[in-house]
Amino acid sequence: FRVEIAANIGSPNDVSPALEYGAEGVGLFRTEFLFMDRPQAPSEDEQFEAYRRAALLMGERPLIIRTLDVGGDKPLAYVDMGQEANPFLGWRAVRVGLDQPEFFKTQLRAIARVAAEFPVRVMFPMIATLDDWRAAKAIFDEERARTGAAGEVSVGIMMEVPSVAVMARQFAASDVAFFSVGTNDLTSYTLAMDRGHPKLATQVDPCNPAVLTLIGDAAEALHAHGKWLGVCGGVASDAQAVPILVGLGVDELSCSIPAIPSVKAAVRSRTLAECQALASQAVACSTPAQVRALVPMTDS
Ligand code: PEP
Ligand code: MG
Question: Which ligand lies nearest to the CA atom of residue 33 in the structure?
């Protein structure tokens, strides 16, 4: 079996360290760095240069660029976000892009221009419905056509909202090319617990059997349609959880740069059959503590 070990990066400067640590690709390039803490949005050319710099360093290795994930708790000086009672359930990520498409279109043109030259993939955050996907994909196709770029671009979505995991069959049958689980948000939304809440944070564990069941069922549905599933949330860097994720059928793990060696070691230390046995025990557990007890820390 083959699990790709990729890195999460937050700027083109992270590419060299990621490769030094042994990343085979970038599974999540967070683009917020270009948009935050400044008075105006970056131009298409500024974005093109930044994405191209990362792509050039990656060469033939895959690079997944995630479109802007702001709003909610991440404000932008040049967009009126208003006041929201529940920012994490509100106007954030791809919802901002669909509602005020100017920034989104500029970003998509910059990415499309780089994708014409390098194996760059595009990923939308916080997709909740097939309509979200269709609308975002249509804007991408339109902007890409405007750049005159030739060739195919692989466009996928993050699985961060439980509705996408629950409806994995329908999403898999659509033209979404790939999926990556954002376990940070998926865990929060599945348990209805804010990951930053001081009283609840310790319970927001992606090893909760509810979250693992969503991931495993989704992987099965996607594989039936020849689609692949990655994980780019924090749990992909957790060596204790990695064998379980592999056993659930995850095809790619995108982790923090320093975690790459331990994640690789955790994948190599077990056979696929061992990982699958762990995964089926994990989804039958009643608590995250029981799940974690299946994989002793020293052993991971
Ligand atoms: C996630 O939600 O798991 C994720 C990778 O996105 P972010 O942490 O940037 O919200
Ligand atoms: Mg997220």
Answer: 1
Structure tokens at 129: 């419905």
Euclidean distance between CA atoms 275 and 222, whole angstroms: 19
CB 58 within 8 A of CB 114: no
Query: Residue range 230-242: average pLDDT?
Result: 98
pTM for the model stands at 0.97
Sign of the dihedral defined by the CA atoms of residues 245, 272, 220, 93, in that order: positive
Q: What is the position in ligand 1's atom list of the atom closest to the CA of 125?
A: 6
Tokens coding 119:
């194996």
Q: 115: closest CA among 107, 127, 104, 125? A: 107
Q: Distance, CA 237 to ligand 2 centroid (Å)?
A: 15
Mean pLDDT on 172-179? 98
| Ligand 1 atom 8, closest CA | 184
74: three-class secondary structure by DSSP? strand
| Nearest one of 200, 198, 201, 217 to 209, comparing CA atoms | 217
Surface-to-core class of residue 123, CB atoms within 10 Å of its CB (0-12 exposed, 13-18 middle, 19+ buried): buried
Residue located nearest, by CA, to atom 6 of ligand 1: 182
